[in-house]
């Protein structure tokens, strides 16, 4: 790591501060139970999309934490954040991790369970 391009500088992408996703609307109204089921299905299958299971686990923990803790989780796992809302990230080996909006926040058209 003798060159300046290989060290973590203050402008490095991996140190990008994460933020809450922008409000979004699902194509149809969802109940909290349906949203939880969609999230569970995504996280159960996420490691099959490629990348490392440990990074997927860290991303899940980050999405379920407050912003300060999420930032610490992402930083300690070595996740390189391309999109500040965590929709697109990379690990240190260059594997891409894409997270759907529904695992990051609730839709604006979330309805009450019966």
UniProtKB/TrEMBL annotation:
Region Disordered: start-end pairs: 1-31
Chain coiled-coil ranges: none
InterPro entries: DC-UbP/UBTD2_N (IPR032752), DC-UbP/UBTD2_N_sf (IPR038169), UBTD1/2 (IPR039869)
The organism's place on the tree of life at top rank: Eukaryota
DC-UbP/UBTD2 N-terminal domain: residues covered: 15-113
PANTHER family referenced in this protein's UniProt entry, alphabetically: UBIQUITIN DOMAIN CONTAINING 1 PROTEIN-RELATED
Protein name: DC-UbP/UBTD2 N-terminal domain-containing protein
Native species: Vitis vinifera
């Amino acid at each position: 790591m003798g060159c300046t391009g290989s060290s973590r500088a203050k402008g490095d992408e991996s140190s990008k501060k994460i933020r809450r996703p922008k409000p979004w609307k699902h194509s149809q109204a969802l109940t909290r139970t349906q949203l939880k089921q969609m999230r569970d299905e995504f996280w159960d299958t996420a490691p099959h999309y490629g990348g490392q299971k440990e990074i997927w686990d860290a991303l899940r923990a980050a999405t379920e934490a407050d912003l300060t803790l999420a930032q610490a989780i992402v930083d300690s796992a070595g996740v390189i954040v391309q999109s500040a809302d965590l929709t697109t990230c990379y690990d240190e080996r260059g594997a891409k991790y894409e997270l759907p909006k529904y695992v990051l926040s609730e839709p604006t058209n979330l309805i009450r369970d019966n």
